[in-house]
């Protein structure tokens, strides 16, 4: 059973777009949460001590900022 993957993004964020391309290329299904369209999502992140997008959650682990190598380590092979 794969863990849910959630991408917190912002409209016009080039690094968010790179993550979307990376996840799609890997065939990873993910849920995108656009903090521009729904600013309250920033409160969700802040409650976890995170203050930046992109942030990707894989299950209960996360990668804040654009760190593709770290993200690939969390994704199922």
Automatic annotation (TrEMBL):
Q: Which residues form the GST N-terminal domain?
A: 3-77
- Organism domain of life: Bacteria
Q: Enumerate the InterPro entries for this protein.
A: Glutaredoxin (IPR002109), Glutaredoxin_subgr (IPR014025), Glutathione_S-Trfase_N (IPR004045), Grx-like_ET (IPR051548), Thioredoxin-like_sf (IPR036249)
Q: Which GO terms describe its biological process?
A: cell redox homeostasis
GO function terms (MF aspect)? electron transfer activity
Residues in the signal sequence: none
**PANTHER family referenced in this protein's UniProt entry, alphabetically:** GLUTAREDOXIN, GLUTAREDOXIN-LIKE PROTEIN NRDH
UniProt-recorded name of the protein: Glutaredoxin 3
Which source organism does the UniProt entry give?
A: Pseudosporangium ferrugineum
